[in-house]
Amino acid sequence: MIHDDQNTTTSLDLAKIREDIDSVDQQIQQLINRRAKLAEAVAKAKFASEENPLFYRPEREAQVLRNVMQRNEGPLSDVTMARLFREIMSACLALEAPQSIAFLGPVGTFTHSAVLKHFGQDAIVRPLPTIDEVFREVEAGSAHYGLVPVENSSEGVVNHTLDCFKASHLNVIGEVELRIHHQFLVSSNTRKDSIKQIYAHQQTLAQCRGWLDAHYPGVERVALSSNAEAARRIRNEWHSAAIASEVAASIYELEILHGNIEDNPENTTRFLVIGREKVPPSGNDKTSLLISAHDRAGALLEILAPFAKHNISLTSIETRPALPEKWAYVFFIDLEGHVDQENVKAAIEEIRPLVKEVRVLGSYPIAVL
Amino acid sequence: MIHDDQNTTTSLDLAKIREDIDSVDQQIQQLINRRAKLAEAVAKAKFASEENPLFYRPEREAQVLRNVMQRNEGPLSDVTMARLFREIMSACLALEAPQSIAFLGPVGTFTHSAVLKHFGQDAIVRPLPTIDEVFREVEAGSAHYGLVPVENSSEGVVNHTLDCFKASHLNVIGEVELRIHHQFLVSSNTRKDSIKQIYAHQQTLAQCRGWLDAHYPGVERVALSSNAEAARRIRNEWHSAAIASEVAASIYELEILHGNIEDNPENTTRFLVIGREKVPPSGNDKTSLLISAHDRAGALLEILAPFAKHNISLTSIETRPALPEKWAYVFFIDLEGHVDQENVKAAIEEIRPLVKEVRVLGSYPIAVL
């Protein structure tokens, strides 16, 4: 056991404290290597008992991280400590079996950041140009897992990702949430003291309204199809600014005149992790369903009733046309709970006769960090 | 003390191994928080004894990382273990006093990767549009440290960084080496089966010669001013490819047809960390000198003689004109050793009367990772 020596922490003897740090570092290192050895033992045990063992266990990882955060007494924050453990687990997992992650590239985007946040720096990353290709790589087994954007609080739901699920039998095995910041951008040509228009996606303008009212009152706000389009457009305009990401500033070579101007600093984007297997319950899970309905009008209310009856919270509902068939719709529903729970099972069974198809896209741990 | 239980690692009981992992995790967590408390004690001791204490100590960090690598017994690799310790130290340092790092932006570039590699994920990053601004921010005290590229094995020395040192009194306090990969890029228009030209910087073409001879024998290779220029140019050409970085692929929306095609996988770029203070010896250091000579012809040989005499290894020599003065030159010399070492001191004193000025830009730990 490790004893926390209060006398040490009040000592002013720097050399003595540094000796203590060195000794603590040696113990940390021994323990991390011991953890890695235990991870190798897990791999051996799995190979002995299964033909194609799984090494990445999302439910187990979520439990470890939750435990780390719950028992954390500081001084390091819960989030910092969980991040360090994510890296330690990532290093140990890479030793058992390096995991390759396909994602919507290119490198340097928010999706790449989400991959690093979820899988740590020891995963092998494979940036791909389209969401379809991410699905295909994982289906073909060329990548262990895939990561795709699904909800962007500034640009809404990424419909293309939802559409890919309609044609795929992959499972959702995890979710990642990433905090997103908005930047106030100008080009090198811009007359900074006479900005006449500010371009951005409508939701972004709304998310920065307080800041814009305070700093650019009376300046016209113009809603465009995307923030990237706003950034692209101001390159050749002299009296315009755009609101977009740091990545867009980079791509379009714009200057960040004001950073992080969003009114709500909790502004996030959500990503889904896709894989070929199913994830057992972690104790705090979400389930994504794809429901194919005969008809939109009235169908949704009927479908929602069993969830209410079984006391299941829904966290998101999206509607997509089920083309090519006319008058049919597909609903994507996220709910709290795991399909192995009795109430979730019961609700799904009650919905089944009301619709053309209910498909469980996956049950997976709610994002920990 | 922690005992490594060999029986555990051969046991096939997965649940038992997981219990062991949980117990190891608890100990690691306690120790990391104990380390953070000791770091806080260091901060307190420093505040008690100094008016403007330094929290980031490059020589101490280098020593810790070297110790970690030297005593490492695996199974995790030395580099992986050192990376984990960099993150642990970064988290502890952020608790003492968060460090802000100015760098040549934008985010998502190799320089940003170098900042993360050297300072860990808990540093506050400040991307700036030019190298001059990085110097100014650090001089003004608006950022604790700055990070700028200095040698790029594909594009040679970054002269602009060297020129900034001529007008600045900042010190070099560290170096970072980053492995760089080359990508074979095409645009969506490119006819992949009839590529007639391959564009890149001359050094890049040389670094990929073996791969190009094997995969594109007989295809014309065209040397351009930079790899970024090569990437830009192929956007609108149908029969051309470029060799450039993943970041360039991202900025110019190009497809990576073949990844990591460099013949030598050890291809690196070097960055310097700049700051306002000097760094004490770490035991394995480098020193950067700026020497202003009266005349180029003959001057260099005279200058180099004392280094040979005192058995000092030079790792790099660069020559820059000392404009606006005609017929005067500035040499940038990197050598192995610290200015506090007798032989380095002696060599510098012998050179001093031969030249207009010798300035020690800094002594700093040789890159550990």
From TrEMBL, chains A, B:
Keywords: Amino-acid biosynthesis, Aromatic amino acid biosynthesis, Coiled coil, Cytoplasm, Isomerase, Lyase, Multifunctional enzyme, Phenylalanine biosynthesis. InterPro entries: ACT-like_dom_sf, ACT_dom, Chor_mutase/pphenate_deHydtase, Chorismate_II_sf, CM_dom_sf, CM_II_prokaryot, G/b/e-P-prot_chorismate_mutase, Preph_deHydtase. It is found in: Cytoplasm. Residues 8-100 form the Chorismate mutase domain. It catalyses: chorismate = prephenate; prephenate + H(+) = 3-phenylpyruvate + CO2 + H2O. CDD domains: ACT_CM-PDT, PBP2_PDT_1. This is Bifunctional chorismate mutase/prephenate dehydratase.
